[in-house]
């Protein structure tokens, strides 16, 4: 699993860029796992809803030539199919998460290796080259960190919505939106005066 590192903790410029890259890998890994979890939850809810509708359909109707024993066997077969699909879903999503962790670990190791090589160039001879590299790439690293944080937060919102926590997400968005609305009204009032 990729290590989560606080981007603002480091002091050396080359380390800042490598730390930002590791942070970005970790955030995208977390976002991916969150989306896989949301997918799993959504499919489980879908399968559960289909199972309950099927059992309600069989229980509520008098079907010609279908005895109670046949209904019980149909429900049992449906439960077995549903159980197989849920277990298959868990296995497959578990494999995806494991693969994502392997990729993140590999990327993090590669970044750390490159950072250690770059640290050797921070000697007096290579300092100017590394300084130019850092000045060019540090703003890109900062933006990448912000984007990765936004993607991870968005993935968590999707997971909350799929899990049925729509109201909590809606309240959080409403709280964030209210100050912007108030400022907009204030600025209109000032511009009319």
Shape: elongated
| Radius of gyration from the alpha-carbon trace, in angstroms | 26 Å
Tell me the domain tally.
2
Q: Mind summarizing the main beta sheet? A: none
Helical fraction equals: over 70%
How many strands? 0
| Strand residue content | under 5%
The helix/strand series, from N terminus to C terminus, equals HHHH
Report, as a whole number of angstroms, the end-to-end distance. Answer: 58 Å
SS content category:
mainly alpha
In DSSP terms (H or I, runs of 4 or more residues), the helix count works out at 4
Low-confidence region ranges: 1-12, 180-193
Provide the residue-averaged pLDDT: 77
Can you give a write-up of this model?
The chain has two domains: 7-162; 166-193. It is elongated. Helix 1 (13-60) packs parallel to helix 3 (127-162) and helix 3 (127-162) crosses helix 4 (166-192). The chain is an all-alpha fold and 193 residues long. Residues 1-12 and 180-193 have low confidence and may be disordered. The chain is built from four helices and no strands. The protein is 85% helix and 0% strand. It has helices at 13-60, 68-120, 127-162, 166-192.
Main traits of this protein?
disordered N terminus, disordered C terminus, single chain, mainly alpha, 193 residues
Short description:
The chain has 193 residues and is an all-alpha fold. It contains 4 helices and no strands.
Q: What's the structural blueprint in terms of helices and strands?
A:
Blueprint: H1 13-60, H2 68-120, H3 127-162, H4 166-192
